[in-house]
Design brief:
single chain; alpha+beta; 3-stranded antiparallel β-sheet; 5 helices; 20% strand
């Protein structure tokens, strides 16, 4: 496995997402929920070193609020344990509704 693929795997694992086997010609990989296995996206292996971690970090609020990730809530649960104050700040206010409800 290439260094960049391992870097991508590590970055997404931090928010509860696993990297599946290559989907097409070893260029794209499916992203699966680490809890239920549901497909939550795709990622290409043409990222530059450091890009995967930055990408996931910049999407933290979307995972924390439930706008990105699996409907089962695994990414929301995982991000809460990573940075509780940031997780709390990302939560919807009042009558805002999650995309999954």
């Amino acid at each position: 496995m290439s260094d960049i693929v391992e870097e991508i795997r590590t970055a997404y694992a931090r928010v509860g997402i696993t990297l599946d086997q290559p989907a097409t010609y070893g260029t794209y990989y499916r992203l699966l929920c680490g809890k239920c296995g549901r497909m939550v996206g795709n990622v290409g292996d043409r990222l530059l070193p450091g890009m995967a971690a930055t990408l996931v970090q910049e999407q933290f609020d979307l995972y924390a609020s439930g706008l990105l990730g699996c409907p089962c809530g695994h990414q929301r649960e995982t991000t809460r344990g990573l940075d509780t104050p940031r997780w709390e700040a990302a939560q919807p206010l009042g009558d805002e509704v999650s995309l999954w409800t």
